[in-house]
Structure to design on (706 residues):
């Protein structure tokens, strides 16, 4: 089973009905991640192309227009419908609490949407965001890039085919030192109202969503604890540990905004185990171990860049009118789980979903 | 720091005040683990020697007397004080709920005790067990063999010296297919009254105690869930997931009596990470990774057999009147934590310790 599942691990299982179309994308919100990861990924894409950027910063607009050869708009222009003939879809990469108005604008322009995770800062606003796309008849993808990582997709196939038997347990962590490098405390990720939550919302959603994707299952209850010993994290959780109960198994997930950088995910099954290290870093080689009673496979460096895949997957779906795995409903399941984790951390009680 | 801590990893940090003495040990309870792991380990020891076995099974007594050249007693003889001049200490390896009477007998004979984990089937009985040794003035060691694993002791030194900064999180699992091999459902580990608990008590105590040992810290609260879908586990937990809150960090531990065999432990810190695979199998080479901002060290095959170390450590402490790390108080902390985990699983509430 190893051989057939993991041969040609970087293949695109979603591109059978190939198209020559190019989907032109407007990027709304040009923070560091959008500039250094997402825009270059679109540029490298086969089906996606960056054609417009929206930023409130005139210097940034000039730099990006030059660097990517795109039309640069400010937010008023974006809302007023400027250059709508230059893009087919919108990538929303603004702070969480601004997703809703920017997605509503895209929907009102009849543009398809790929929206960064988590969908919004609150469940209510996320539900309105999903409804706005539904009402306008535009496609919505939650930007869960791990779901388009080829190695992760191979693991999902392996798990779904019974490769590790029944899933008994998942364990995952994402520790992201948010104040590392050049980033100081004056950033929206530390602003409780703009972000909705701290490590839980920004990086905890990775092990949660990826475990759900691998196991094909949704949570039924959550128990969580949070800690914010550093005053920089007065408004948001610095550390979170959350136990997520599924039907017949449990996921123990954690996330931190400080500490030694770490990203990992592991699924333990009745008849095997899959473990991924360097699990969530953008563009990293996933270090994958697949263990079964008949042998162990180490699979490292087998995949393609998941962010290039992400925008191409979205663009291909738009071009061919295909569904996407990480849709709005998928994003809402996580929003409800994250909110329940916050409720549990505040009350010290297990919260059912 | 790597070099100095992990050089000569198998060294005995506890044997500075060496002695030539041999401590003669009576083994009470001769199940598979005692016969195949503990007795051979004593035999290989420098300070420990097996001289007496106690078993209710005449065939077993004859076989063991022959195999190890020991005096074999039945339980009546042990209680009546037979052959007390042939042993200095007692190793209690009976089912959990029988530890108390067998330790009381040892104490009444004035013999030192090394007692298998967990200390007993209930907190109350474990407290009486510890008190019996205190009252008789005999030494009590809880048989936490991981604490005498040289690699684990090196990791503790490294963590205590700040090698990974502040501990932020621990994750550990012990999945032991208790019905694997020749073992059927007719065994005391599945008997709720004799065992006190299932996977939680029998193997869950490993990640809990070892994480506590490495971090040098005690729990303050527990949240747990258990599942026993297989009817063979009607009386005890088949699967347990328990989140243990410490002062400023959380341990997420799990254990199973069925599933793909797995033993692992990981500590995430503010400035590094230590991970151990094959963490708890008797005599296994620990696969250790130590990660810090300045580099990564893979340390595998560096240790000695922890069970040989365990009995020699105990015997050396008895001979030199030294203290032991895993004493009765240490065992009681875990008993209270395990009982709190059971209470949490039953109530769905977080339980403070």
């Amino acid at each position: 089973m190893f051989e057939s599942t993991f041969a040609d691990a970087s293949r695109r299982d979603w591109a059978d009905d190939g198209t020559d179309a190019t989907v032109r994308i407007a990027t709304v919100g040009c923070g560091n991640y959008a500039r250094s990861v997402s825009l270059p990924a679109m540029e490298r894409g086969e089906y996606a192309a960056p054609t417009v950027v929206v930023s409130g910063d005139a210097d940034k607009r000039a730099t990006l227009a030059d660097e990517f050869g795109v039309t640069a708009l400010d937010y008023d222009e974006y809302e007023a419908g400027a250059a709508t003939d230059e893009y087919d879809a919108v990538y929303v990469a603004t702070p969480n609490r601004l997703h809703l108005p920017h997605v509503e604008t895209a929907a009102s322009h009849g543009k398809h949407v790929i929206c960064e995770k988590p969908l919004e800062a609150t469940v209510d606003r996320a539900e309105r965001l999903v409804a706005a796309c539904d009402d306008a008849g535009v496609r919505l993808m939650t930007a869960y890039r791990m779901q388009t990582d080829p190695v992760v997709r191979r693991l999902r196939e392996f798990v779904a085919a019974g490769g590790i038997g029944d899933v008994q347990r998942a364990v995952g962590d994402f520790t992201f030192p948010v104040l590392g490098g050049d980033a100081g405390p004056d950033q929206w990720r530390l602003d409780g109202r703009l972000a909705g939550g701290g490590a839980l919302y920004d990086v905890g959603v990775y092990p949660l969503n990826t475990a759900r994707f691998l196991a094909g299952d949704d949570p039924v209850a959550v128990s969580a604890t949070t800690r914010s010993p550093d005053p920089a994290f007065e408004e948001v959780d610095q550390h979170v540990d959350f136990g997520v109960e599924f039907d017949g198994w449990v996921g123990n997930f954690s996330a931190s905004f400080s500490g030694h950088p770490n990203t990992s995910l592991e699924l333990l099954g009745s008849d095997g185990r899959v473990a991924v290290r360097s699990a969530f870093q953008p563009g990293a080689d996933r270090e994958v171990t697949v263990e079964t009673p008949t042998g162990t496979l180490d699979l490292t460096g087998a995949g393609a860049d998941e962010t290039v895949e992400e925008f191409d997957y979205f663009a291909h779906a738009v071009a061919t009118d295909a569904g996407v795995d990480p849709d709005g409903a998928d994003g809402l399941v996580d929003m409800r789980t994250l909110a329940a984790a916050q409720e549990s951390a505040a009350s010290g009680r297990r919260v059912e979903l």
